[in-house]
Amino acid sequence: MKYTIMRMPLALKRAVADILCTPLMGRALAGIFHDRIPHKGFRIDTSHSSITPLTKAALFWGGYEGAEIRFTRRYLRPDLDVVELGCSIGVLSCHIRRLMESSRQLVCVEALPNLAEIARKNLRINDCENNVSVIERAIDYDKERKHVPLERGVENTGGRIIDYKACGGRRTIEIQTTTLYEILSEAGIGEYSLVSDIEGAEAGFIMEKCEDLSKCQRIIIELHDTSYRHKPVRVDDMVQKLVHVHGFALADQYGRCHVFEKNT
Q1: pTM here?
Q2: Is pLDDT of 48 > 80?
Q3: Is 23 helix (H, G, I), strand (E, B) or coil?
């Protein structure tokens, strides 16, 4: 059933998801499974109030981060350390850790403290804690600031960095910043794979001429039209930068989710 759904036309797939993934369905599933939702061989704890019934239904029916999970299973190199940016509640983190060699290191980065704590819990209950660390910081390349306002997502399972001038009336939280290079240095990581979904903040390490991606061998990333240094940045701009400046080849794509491999 899941195999067939993944290959449906996008419009039909969305129609099926609209039927299966509803708040009513999510509340029913949460009751049946006592907020430990079965998901592709894992049990995902969804008891925290920030996880909506819609997310619970999507977890059960396999729609939650479907493209990222499929690409991770297909392209992730088990012999490399992995940095995951935007780990949210730790679902993809569990998939990544199970695919990796036990001696390899997984560093998960999540800006929202409540989501980082849920991620740690889900890694723990699925026996995926070995050689895993969860860091509570936001990826940001403005050297003038050490903290940024992060706007919570509509469903509380995500967020995005906004300008201080736009904070009025919005649900924001102050988050310490970091860069991909700082994460790699602190963890002592050499060659690695990158998995990223940080709602447009990826423009920082893609558009800059920096060393952050020099040792990266494979990228699984969700790209978003965004702005960087007060200029618009399109998905195609970032794809071209990764290919022509950072030395990657586009290996696969589904919607916003892209896979890049380092040219050898």
Answers
A1: 0.87
A2: yes
A3: helix
